[in-house]
């Protein structure tokens, strides 16, 4: 069987941590008098911690000293970690473990491609780290999604060409990064939000083994785009 590289985003794809990022950013925005909506939150998904705070300040038309900026970033992470510390395997999103196991059974390569600097401890908490051949996270990249760096590094770490890689993403920025990297982009979530993806599924329960096998064999590729599912 051909070997493809399956690159998973973490937050909102493997684990339901997107809601914790949202709660922590909302609290931070309100603490500096900035309004924060769910629509704005969509624009922060997949985006690095630094870039997220910059965007919130832009929306609030406000600025901070470097020391205040660093202080708020630390506070946001502290708040976020208070949720993360309570996590266990029950917060793995539906059918993710089964999908990882199926890919392993099919002898495929698996990488993590996340913007988060907390990715490794989270994978350990939910006991999935052993399923990954490579992990690329927020500590390993200098450019935030939608820049493709994180996924290109993932492909390199797996020893595969970008065109042989498939990305699972819940964020607009991540789908754009995968498309720029010339990888098959698979959106996990709302099709109205993720319409730039090559394929979109509400969650992994909707993705058949047949679809995955067609991707591995090349029957489905980037050009097939939304026609066969
Ligand atoms: C991404 C999340 O995976 O990681 C973003 O979608 C988050 O919401 C980013 O800001 C950085 O995460 P962390 O854990 O390093 O603050
Ligand atoms: Mg995500």
Give the helices and strands, then pairings.
Blueprint: E1 5-8, H1 18-31, H2 38-44, H3 49-59, H4 66-84, H5 96-105, E2 109-113, H6 119-125, E3 134-136, H7 149-158, E4 165-169, H8 172-180, E5 184-188, E6 199-201, H9 209-217
Helix pairs in contact: 1-4
Describe this structure as you would to a colleague.
By secondary structure, this protein is of the alpha/beta class. The protein contains 9 helices and 6 strands. The protein has a 6-stranded parallel sheet with strand order 3-2-1-4-5-6, sandwiched between helices. Helix 1 runs antiparallel to helix 4 (66-84). The longest helix has 19 residues, at 66-84. It binds 6-O-phosphono-beta-D-glucopyranose and magnesium ion (MG). Magnesium ion binds at residues 9, 11-13, 45-46, 170-171, 174.
Largest sheet, described in full? 6 strands, parallel
What portion of the residues fall into strands of 2 or more residues? 5-15%
Radius of gyration (Å): 17 Å
The backbone outline, from C-alpha atoms, is: globular
Q: pLDDT average, as an integer? A: 95
Question: SSE order in H/E notation?
Answer: EHHHHHEHEHEHEEH
Reported CATH architecture of the largest domain: 3-Layer(aba) Sandwich
Low-confidence stretches: none
Q: What would the CATH topology of the largest domain be?
A: Rossmann fold
The overall number of domains is 2
Q: So what's the CATH class of the largest domain? A: Alpha Beta
Helix content: 40-55%
Beta-strand segment tally = 6
Distinct ligand kinds: 6-O-phosphono-beta-D-glucopyranose, magnesium ion
Judged by helices, strands and strand pairing, the structural class is: alpha/beta
* Side-by-side strand order of the widest sheet: 3-2-1-4-5-6
Number of distinct helices: 9
By CATH, the superfamily of the largest domain comes out as HAD superfamily/HAD-like
Question: What is the CA–CA distance across the termini?
Answer: 22 Å
């Amino acid at each position: 069987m051909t070997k493809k590289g399956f690159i998973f985003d973490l937050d909102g794809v493997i684990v339901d941590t997107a809601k914790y990022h949202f709660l922590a950013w909302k609290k931070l925005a309100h603490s500096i008098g900035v309004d924060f909506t769910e629509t704005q939150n969509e624009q922060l998904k997949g985006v690095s911690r630094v870039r997220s705070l910059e965007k919130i300040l832009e929306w609030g038309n406000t600025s901070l000293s470097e020391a205040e900026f660093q202080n708020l970033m630390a506070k946001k992470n502290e708040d976020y970690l208070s949720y993360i510390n309570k996590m266990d395997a029950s917060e793995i999103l539906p059918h993710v473990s089964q999908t990882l196991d199926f890919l392993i059974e099919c002898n495929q390569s698996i990488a993590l491609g996340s913007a988060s600097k907390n990715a490794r401890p989270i994978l350990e908490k939910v006991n999935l780290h052993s399923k990954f051949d490579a992990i690329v996270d927020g500590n390993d990249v200098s450019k935030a999604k939608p820049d493709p760096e994180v996924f290109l590094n993932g492909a390199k770490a797996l020893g595969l060409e970008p065109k042989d890689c498939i990305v699972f993403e819940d964020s607009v920025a991540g789908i754009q990064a995968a498309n720029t990297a010339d990888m098959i982009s698979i959106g996990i979530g709302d099709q109205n939000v993720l319409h730039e993806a090559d394929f979109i599924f509400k969650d992994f329960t909707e993705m058949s083994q047949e679809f995955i096998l067609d991707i591995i064999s090349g029957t489905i590729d980037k050009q097939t785009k939304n026609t066969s599912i």
